[in-house]
Amino acid sequence: MYPKTRIRLAILLESTNNNDGNVYDEEIIFLYETAATNETLQTSEKINAWTNAAKFSSTTTAKRERLLRALTVTTPIDNNDVDDDDNGGNIISIAYAHAFAEYIQLILQECTSAVEKTHLFDLLDEGLDLCDQVEKLCPKEPVVDEFRGVILRKKYRNSIASSSSLSFSSSSTLTLTSISMMILNAEGDTAMGNIQQLQDTSTAPTQQLQQQVYKAYAVAAQKSYESVILAIYGDIKETYSSSYGSLPSVSTIHMSTSSPTPTTEMLCSRLLRHIILAAAAAREARMIYEEDEHIKFGQEIMIKLEQHFIAKMMFRKSLEINPNDGHANAQLASLGDKVAASSTSFSSEYVSGLFDGYSDRFEKELVEVLDYRGHIIVADATRRHIPSSVSSQSNQSSIVVADLGVGTGLLGSLFREMYPSNTNNMILWGVDISNRMVQQSQNRMLDNGDFVYDTVMEMDVNMFLQNLDSNYVHVVGASDVFIYVGDLKELFIECHRVLSADGILVFTVEFPSSKDVAAKGQLKKNGVGLLKSGRFGHSRHYIQGLAKDHNYDLLEWKEEVLRKQGSDSVHGAVVVLKKKVP
């Protein structure tokens, strides 16, 4: 009997298999195995036959054996080994990806039931050995490096769990779809915020594992891009040097999705997945430059390949897994997604992780590169509208100022210079959700050696305000902070409560760019929405409405250029509200 006929019969039996007794399992396995051993089959067909036979195996041992046969097919892989739709042999990558995914899934399933740590790490090492073996057979297959990253990440997280009181749960399900969601902890692992919390106490070996996770995903991204270039052009002519190797230049790409082949579509989707995984791993390893490089490269690729629909699909799937994930929402908004633009809040874990990772280069890049002026704008507006009773100190012994979202302390420094502690007895409170920002601002000093802040708290701004006494604060300042809050109703309520009788609330808001159609529509409709920049925008109508509803007088709405975004100016406004007392 011809081998392809056996495969078709096996598929037919699959469709009629008795779900109660699975009476045809042995016959299905027999048909697939006999087909797989026939030398006339193409390599991809043999791999798929062994993989399908493994699917119907009743024991883990039998599944392992058949999947290993799939992964050790030794027929040469060349351009003559093509499928019926003449896709140039790239179908081999899909076949190996499925077989490899099945085997890695078996290992991870055993990991979930491993009682002893020794056995767990033995299983993970077995997975790494398998990656090495498959790489020898398919040295240019990026899925090998992707799965190596999956195993190393699990090894890293279990290494942390072994040295801490926190434990990490994981799911036994690993599919090609769920792997693409690793950026969002699709395995069910503890949120990235807890990982960040533990990194400071991790040992050198676990830090090394973390960097190995990044390296694995970065190599996968490199190989994926090379496969895209080869599939489209057949040759790589122009390259550039990146942090993870020599890559083909983005400028050489000009493919449209108007008529993509199934193979090029698959390769492009895989490339975007690997870029996202590499960027996420770089963030966890605190390799901020590398994270930015991957994200920028991914954005350029999406534009050049016009593959926005693939990225949107992946991030929407991400939100199904974790509806509160800020990263997925921000990325969807950057692609002009209308649903993402309607978002009105970020999770605290996302915001804290964002600024923890940004803290080391925050001030230098923001001020020197992006020409950030938000702190100056807020300080100047405060000077223009500071209540006379506060400036003269005729009725009080001290000035109390609250700086929301202190960052590195840029605004606090201007406040302190405005009312030096040695002359006006100023009390300057600060709060930030980012642990690393809090550390930097706590240690910030003026030229005379005075600390800028009296106290800096690490918590959400609403929680911070809830812990302050009523009518206690004279000035609440927030420079580029509300753009990460979104819905401002609760914050307005708490600010009004803590402000003194003539106290003021001074803050900045951001506007959509001229090209941000989705956010413009959202602001026109609801007054607040997620911009393409990944920050929230607010309309004047929205702010005026909140001010009226919560007893503020609008003293100033002044449009300003807040900073740069690439070569473009970011427009917004500085707002000054005064507490209205009945």
Short description:
This is S-adenosyl-L-methionine-dependent methyltransferase. With 582 residues, the protein is an alpha/beta fold. The chain has helices at 3-16, 25-36, 43-55, 60-71, 91-113, 117-137, 142-162, 176-179, 192-199, 204-233, 262-284, 288-305, 308-321, 326-334, 338-341, 348-358, 362-369, 374-385, 388-392, 410-418, 421-424, 435-442, 461-466, 489-498, 517-526, 540-549, and strands at 239-242, 245-248, 399-404, 426-432, 455-458, 473-478, 499-510, 528-530, 536-538, 552-565, 568-579.
Q: Would you mind describing this structure in some detail?
A:
It is a single chain. The chain has 582 residues and is an alpha/beta fold. It has 26 helices and eleven strands. The protein has helices at residues 3-16, 25-36, 43-55, 60-71, 91-113, 117-137, 142-162, 176-179, 192-199, 204-233, 262-284, 288-305, 308-321, 326-334, 338-341, 348-358, 362-369, 374-385, 388-392, 410-418, 421-424, 435-442, 461-466, 489-498, 517-526, 540-549; strands spanning 239-242, 245-248, 399-404, 426-432, 455-458, 473-478, 499-510, 528-530, 536-538, 552-565, 568-579. A seven-stranded mixed sheet has the order 5-4-3-6-7-11-10, with helices on both faces. Helix 5 (91-113) packs antiparallel against helix 6. It is elongated and about 95 Å long.
